[in-house]
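pinned: reference chain
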Amino acid sequence: MRATQIHFPKNIDKFKQNVLLWSQQFDDVVWLDSNNHKDQYSNYDAVLAVDAFTTIRTDYFDAFERLKEYQSLTKDWIFGYLTYDLKNTTERLKSKNFDGLDFPDLYFFQPKKLFLFKDNQVEIKYLKMVDDEIEDDLEVITNSISSESEKSHNDNPIKIKLRIHKDDYFEKVNKMIAHIQRGDIYEANFCQEFYAEDSEINPIETFKQLNEISKSPFASFLKFEDKYMMSASPERYIKKKGTTVISQPIKGTAKRSINQAEDLKLAEDLSKDQKERSENIMIVDLVRNDLSHTATKGSVEVKELCKVHSFLQVHQMISTIQSEVKSETNPVDIIKTTFPMGSMTGVPKLSALKIIENLEETKRGLYSGSVGYFTPHGDFDFNVIIRSILYNASKKYVSYSVGGAITAKSDPLKEYEECLIKAKAMRQALGG
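pinned: its structure tokens
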């Protein structure tokens, strides 16, 4: 790849807005934005990959083996997503629930054009360069404002429907609690879909609205032909740098308050809530077990347990688990042995996956899957696709799902109210 580096001392945010608008001319787009949430694990402030040179798209059958082959052959940056339904290749499972979106189960591409943002620097890498292509593109990006930015994100009202109505939700949660009381599971993540049919949205403006509302550390925008994902995810699924692997599951949510004293109390109450802590600790144990499949002996450790982090919409309880792997360990094997992520499944994982499939009404697909990238050296970083709007433009189908962990101590009404808190940002971004 040919590379160039540019310094933007003042107008980096404007350049980020323009480059994302510019990217919409391509069929393949992945935009990842930390919204300046910097921590010790961050590589970049934002990343944009566009314009596929090579691709892989497949259903769940042998998906990880095919991804491993593709990643090994390209030995380059590749960007894409893993749907939740890849559970059907890691375990003998099926997904028969309704799917209004039709995303392929797995999709990755090798980009021709890559933008890496760090502080006020942008490193630009182009594959298969022709003449002054970087300079020509920069001229367009920096000096023009697309008329797309002036379009309303929601010219027509979006009528949101519930796939599971309130009374049915209570009944299903009680069935899940009965499974817990029988000892089938200890905890499981139960999700419900909100959707709109015969609806058209402006994906880039909807993402802009969602991101402004949430400013989350793992925000992402994905365009794959006529399919879109607009995500305000606060959660990292898994990251590898060198031989170090980390996973950062979220379990435990509380609302924010505009009153500072009340807001601090809400955060403190969350940190001490025994139900929320037990949810988080159970998933930490699951993640420790998942990471142990590829970890060197004795290297799995909990770096941070049940720490409360505050975002614009909610307080969240996050833990960080770390492991070490051998340098020759294939990166795709690390993902395969930890997927689907613990925070979106349950304990024990296989039993939870079966019960989830039976009680939910919608095929999760990209929701509670992951989007991210591999580097040429086999490092990777992937988020958890939650707090996200999914859109099939050809079918005019808009969808967002929310869920929460159900335990023996769950109150169906409180679980339902937590879902509504989580759904608030997506509803607002769609004009609700």
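why pinned: Residues 52 and 111 are 5 Å apart (CA to CA). The first helix runs from residue 12 to 22.
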